[in-house]
Amino acid sequence: MGCGKGFTRCSHARIALLPRLDVAAGPFNIDLKRGPNAERINSTYNKQKNLLKQLRSSAAYCGTNLDSNANPRCFLAIEIEGRSGTRKQRLGSILNASAIGKIGIAVGWDAEVTDSLRKIQQYLDFLWDRQKTAWRPQNVIIMERLTFLSGLASPKSVR
């Protein structure tokens, strides 16, 4: 029985949404070994401080606490947003990247899309500050596509 894109039947016969990221970088936390998996992800986070510093320094927006996701499914969760997406889809991409990755990265295809992502994240921060939401994505970095690619290729960020 097909449940539609992004949905699957769980072992308990309920339907669960399983969002698909554009890019995920490990280590991964996708089996029942949550403790050791979390340790490996945290170890990678600590080893990649130079990469994160490089990405932060050129970001259009950087969250207040990149280490806030205590139960990530991967080290980096990257969503790439093109020109055709709506603001609602961009909001979903920010939330998915934050919830799934130790670090969530939303990459805008161009300056206009990147600015839209930044404004959405600032709105989420505003809602949190006014106690309108119970959770906010604090582990998100928002970048323009070419800036993101150059940050990955930079010798300073490779370790």
Question: How would you describe the overall organization of this protein?
Answer:
This protein is α/β, with parallel strands linked by helices and 159 residues long. The protein has one domain (21-153). 41% of the residues lie in helices and 22% in strands. The chain has helices at residues 34-47, 49-57, 87-100, 111-129, 145-153, and strands spanning 7-9, 15-17, 23-28, 61-62, 74-81, 101-108, 140-144. The protein has a 5-stranded mixed sheet with strand order 3-5-6-7-4. The longest helix is centred in the C-terminal third of the chain and has 19 residues, at 111-129. The termini are far apart. The model has no long low-confidence stretch (mean pLDDT 85).
Number of strands: 7
Give the C-alpha Rg. 16 Å
Strand order of the largest sheet: 3-5-6-7-4
Provide the low-confidence segments as ranges: none
H-E order: EEEHHEEHEHEH
**Quick one: overall form?**
globular
Major sheet: size, sense and barrel closure? 5 strands, mixed
Domains, number: 1
Could you give a short description of this structure?
With 159 residues, the chain is of the alpha/beta class.
List the helices and strands and how they pair.
Layout: E1 7-9, E2 15-17, E3 23-28, H1 34-47, H2 49-57, E4 61-62, E5 74-81, H3 87-100, E6 101-108, H4 111-129, E7 140-144, H5 145-153
Helix pairs in contact: 3-4
List keywords for this structure.
159 residues; alpha/beta; five-stranded mixed sheet; two-stranded antiparallel sheet; 41% helix
